[in-house]
Amino acid sequence: MIGPRLAALTLLLTACGSAAGMATPTPPCRPALTLPSPAAAAAPVSATADQAQVDPGDTVTFTETVTGPATLQVDCSQPLEVIVTDSTALSVYSGSSTAAGAGSCGTVTLAPGGEASYQVAWPVDPTLPGGTYTATLTLGDAPQLSLSLAVGTLPGAC
After folding, report:
1. Cα–Cα distances in Å, from 124 out to 19, 79, 82, 93, 158?
2. Backbone phi, then psi, for 111, in 5-degree steps?
3. Any idea where the domains of the chain sit in the sequence?
4. Which of 20, 55, 71, 158 has a Cα at 20 to 30 A from 5?
5. pTM to 2 decimals?
6. pLDDT string in tens for the chain (158-residue length)
7. Pairing mode, if any, of strands 131-139 and 145-151?
């Protein structure tokens, strides 16, 4: 009696071991996601990027807009500053907008409904690895704003 039971148990264990040793198939790739345009706001400022996903070697432009009524101090030589960091908080780019003209720097006072906009372009390094990056925008004494965007193809995308 023990012989047939032992043979059945051996057969069962051998079959299970064979299944465990088989390679699992690679999951199919997913179509590339359509990411929403990056945007952030903290009164009286709002920020956007002209694209949510950029290829290494291309350029993404950040725009920060102040909407009145508002009064803030803005540096005339570098009104809008941007620092881009990777997922480990390592800085990969820092830049600023060009000097601002009269009325767009120093003490800027906007009436209700008035607007002032500032831009910074980020020329993405062609050797930058793909992934998610965070751009932190600083405009004078306004609240800092952060935007997330993808560089290159996200993992798993076709």
Report:
1. 47, 21, 13, 8, 22
2. -75, 165
3. 39-151
4. 20
5. 0.76
6. 556 555 554 555 455 454 455 566 665 665 555 677 899 999 999 999 999 999 999 999 999 999 999 999 999 999 999 999 999 999 999 999 988 887 889 999 999 999 999 999 999 999 999 999 999 999 999 999 999 999 997 655 55
7. antiparallel
